[in-house]
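Progress narrative, work stream C.
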Amino acid sequence: YKFPLELVFRILDVLFAEGYESIFRIAFALLKKNQDFILEFEFESLIDFLKNGLFDIYDNDISELINDASAIKIPKRRLDRLANHFIQMTKEIDDTNLKMDHLKKENRELNTEIQRLSLAVENLTKENLELRSEIEDHRFEEEANKTLIDALQRQIEESEKLVAHTLKDAQKQAEEKVRIQLDVLINKNIDNTRKNQELEERVSELEQLLVDIKIKYAESEIEKENYQRKWENLKRFID
């Protein structure tokens, strides 16, 4: 609060002369004198008025203020009651301040927890975005793999058709080749059978010829022996 220096000195004189009750009387006098203005002001304007304009209504007449303050009688019992009320209010304010400090501490802890949770949410959001991106990549890869699988399946079907057609042609060619080889073998078998018959006939002829030769040989041996005996007989006869 801003008061003229002369007013401050007069207030100090009254304070030293009458005690601390004089401070309350002077304050009540100022508030009572300005109550009409105080009730009209808004809060912000009221704060400025209480700091700078309380004494303006007295037009620097310090004696009038002191007289108004002296006219206000405040019983000591009331002052004690007000003092007790002030002490009670101060205690309540202190309790409220303690609660406010506790609430501020809890608020700071909650803010810290909120920051931690916000960071966790940001991390989870980042992980979620990364997972979404990874899912999109997997989905794109899955679609690409599906397209590739479909293409491979079509290629396999075409290959199976081609293989089946090729096998069918190969089977026909193999059957034709086997049939040709079988015909060749049959013809060879027929030819071999014919040759075998001819050989058997030739062998029979040779066997018959051999028998005839053996007979002739035996006859020649007999004839030889006969000639040998005749020669010996002739030789003995000559001797």
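Work stream C, second folded protein:
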Amino acid sequence: MADVVVVGGGIIGLTAARRLQQRGADVTIWTAHDVRDTVSSVAAAVWYPTHTDDDPRVRRWAASAYREFMRQADAGVPGVMVRHTRMVLRSPLAALPWWARSIGDAVLAGGELRFSAPLVEMDTYLAWLLSQLVDGGATVVRRRPVSLAAASAAAPIVVNATGLAARELCGDTAVYPVRGHIVLADNPGLVESVRDEDNPAGLTYVHPRGDDVVLGGTFEEGLSSVAPDPVEAAAIVRRCGAVVPELSGVRVRGSRIGLRPARRGGPRVEAEGQVIHAYGHGGAGVTLSWGCADDVASWGDHLA
């Protein structure tokens, strides 16, 4: 029998599993999908605590994840890089936002907030993270649990990192979907990220990776359709091209649409009996991941 069953194969589940494993736990991961098919794989995956509140937990998680991703970028971990970022400010800021305290080089200049942030190519990174777990002795099982009780029968400690599925598994009606739509295009040589969160035409961001660039996006609370929307995709490309003219005429590779697992009241990260809940991170899953994983591992030590 494993020491811990982690239910959920997205970024929250896998980082929690890795931290538990690094503390000596024998971990089994139950995932309903291949990691390449989780909502985490659709993420633009740039460190930025979007739509999160300024509370001590979020500050701590965000700062910890920032440090970990920067360390991984320095170490050459596959899929992790650092991008200088320009955030367009539609209204002036008198001081740096709360989350910028985690960043050593954040400055206000010329109507912009400028800072460096980790960016993660999720397909590559999730595959690397899963390989680290398997090489460390973890077992991965393709299984969709019908209840957390089933997981509890397989290990004395369960981590519930099921995202949107937590609404049904836990009866948590505070969990809801936030639809996100990004467009992937050829990278014309960009090396700098640009964010225009308050663009009157719609949420706009440009995140260059290797040979492609992520163009975004949408943040549509309560919508659950993942059907393709060519009109919306074209609007995203137009918005991004208006902010970054180098994108004019760029070849579009396709769209990705995912449902972010948000929760009214913020993420739930706490122990309930022998179950450690870790879900409801919304669009900030990558940004909070490693910090949240540290807390999950601490709960695991307490319950063991």
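The helical segments are 11-22, 56-75, 122-135, 148-152, 166-169, 230-243, 285-303. No further action is required on this item.
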